[in-house]
Amino acid sequence: MERLTRDTLIEVEAYRIEDYKSAERPYEKHHKNNSVLVSSRKAVTDF
To answer: Domain locations in the chain?
Structure first.
């Protein structure tokens, strides 16, 4: 990792969760997720 010394455009890949299924009952107070559908896209972002 390095500090950016000026405004910079960087190409990034972003991920988004589109859909998922959760277990009906928690296990140790946590709901487990499965069948996770993820999409990704590339973009140029200002930093």
So the answer is: 7-34
